[in-house]
Write the structure tokens for this entry.
Amino acid sequence: MFIQFLKENRYVSLILTVLRLYLGWQWLNAGWGKISSGNFDASGFLGGAVKNMSGEHPAVQPWWGNFLKEVAIPYVDLFNVMVPWGEFLVGLGLILGIFTSLSLLMGLTMNFAYMLSGTTSTNPQMVLLGLIILAAGMNAGKLGLDRWLTPYLGRLIYKKAGNEQISQSA
């Protein structure tokens, strides 16, 4: 019942827009800070996370730490590009209300990656707000570009699928 309320109530779309703009600004600001500084390097963060995977109650679980050691650290140059631009694009998507659900999904993925790496900061708050917005579905992007883009893409895909069905049956 609560999910239906989130998805259908037009007044809730105003609240969702405020939450979406807040999260968008957080992501955009974080990403732009890293991009504009020109010296973002995830090496220290990744190395610190790997160090935190030992002890009686490790902050980083061994399976995640092994992923960081085997994948993230050897390809840190790729992560040094993906992290700031990912944060920036998630923020831009949320602020503009374009591909809102995808933007949130990518933002939540980064939040969980940061938390799995042993940080807390604002990540739990961002996860909670992101999950609420994600549960609201299209109502979260109603006051954004998704309002026009989603129906357009739906018509485009439906039209293309309809044309392919006609040509296959002929």
Observations:
- Residues 8 and 139 are 7 Å apart (CA to CA).
- The chain is about 75% helix and 0% strand.
